[in-house]
Amino acid sequence: MIRGYRWEFPILLIIAGALASLCFRSIVPSLGFLIAALVAYFVTPGAMWLARRWGAVDQPDERSVHQVPTPSWGGIAIYLGFMAALFYALLAGPSAQPRQMVVPVLGIVLGGTLIALLGGADDRVDLPAWSKLGGQIVCAGFLIPFGVRIEGITNPLGGGWIALPVWLGIVLTILWVVAVTNAINLIDGLDGLAAGVSAIAAFTLALIGLGWGRVEAAILAAGLSGASLGFLPYNFSPAKVFMGDLGSHFLGYSIAAISVLGAFKVAVSLAILLPLLVLAVPIFDTAFAITRRYRRRQPIFSGDRGHIHHLLLARGLSQRQTVLVIYGITVAFCALAFLISQVR
Fold first, then answer.
1. Could you read off the pLDDT of 204-219 as tens digits, one per residue?
2. pLDDT tens readout for residues 222-265
3. More confident call, 288 vs 171
4. Which of 45, 125, 146, 307 ranks highest by number of CB atoms within 10 Å?
5. Against a cut of 0.90, is the pTM above it?
6. What rounded mean pLDDT belongs to the chain?
7. Closest CA to 223 of 28, 11, 6, 7
8. Hey, which of 39-48, 273-282, 306-315 has the most confident mean pLDDT?
């Protein structure tokens, strides 16, 4: 065994890739999923070393569940796994990619890179909350020139497509991306929680994208799911590394942007409901946190121990049990979203 690696995990990831291929029934997203998972797995020890070298280490405090200082740049492995899958997809795809597919993907990649840098800086120097929010808004706005924005919504009652004014579509896109970015960041409070929920959500978005012919969204989502899964062996309780804000920001931003590129671009009844179902757990947790802090007259960006995972821990569940329960809830909502997506 090479230091830092356990070879049973790559074997399990290959099996997961084979199962993914049965679900996707398409070679490019299937291999992208597997490549991302393996790259993330093998890169994570290097990300841990780099985090220690540059002082990106999460020190336990009164709100922490972990008891020892833990490196927090594991998101680097998720980012590189995702990029490896995307690079493979570009090589494996047609030599002349349609512009309407390449440009939005480029916007997501560049915006995701920017927000990963923002999160990495926060892991290192603990940026002020309002500075972080401003950076998130800028990164979300970065998607707009590349055509990644909400252009309309489907009418769930009468059918048809309701086109939105450009300015309203831009505002809704920025709000959505910033909200999902912070939702994933907020649930990153237990070992393996954010990575597992993101893997499940992205996998579901890939299935929905393939079913609707949004191949570019499906490829991106499959790579993101694989990268999250490849990182999980190091992050599951007891975690050897955290994804940090670098990882949670990148995951939340990418999932939000992919959902805009996929579900929000399809004129199918109830399409707008699907991203809300896929991300039901982090969205509900974030909404509940904002409401709770507002009623207590606490700053919105202040931390507390009232999140879903804290409540389950207070009920006597272990870290692993809590994470698995939330995984199960996420799977249930994602399954519902997938079933709805099959209704035409």
1. 999 999 988 888 899 9
2. 999 999 999 999 999 889 999 999 999 999 999 999 999 876 66
3. 171
4. 307
5. yes
6. 88
7. 28
8. 39-48
- Domain segments of the chain: what residues? 8-341
Buried b (16+ CB within 10 A) or exposed e, 109-133: bebbbbbbbbbbbbbbeebeeeebb
**How far is it, in rounded angstroms, from Cα 13 to Cα 34?**
7
Given a cut of 60, is residue 97 above it in pLDDT?
A: no
Can you give the length of the chain in residues?
Answer: 344
Secondary structure string (H, E, C) spanning the chain: CCCCCCCHHHHHHHHHHHHHHHHHCCHHHHHHHHHHHHHHHHHHHHHHHHHHHHCCEECCCCCCCCCCCEECCCHHHHHHHHHHHHHHHHHHCCCCCCHHHHHHHHHHHHHHHHHHHHHHHHHHHCCCHHHHHHHHHHHHHCCHHHCCCCCEEECCCCCCEEECCHHHHHHHHHHHHHHHHHHHHHHCCCCCHHHHHHHHHHHHHHHHHHHCCCHHHHHHHHHHHHHHHHHHHHHCCCCCCCCHHHHHHHHHHHHHHHHHHCHHHCCCCCCCHHHHHHCHHHHHHHHHHHHHHHHCCCCCCCCCCCCHHHHHHHCCCCHHHHHHHHHHHHHHHHHHHHHHHCCC
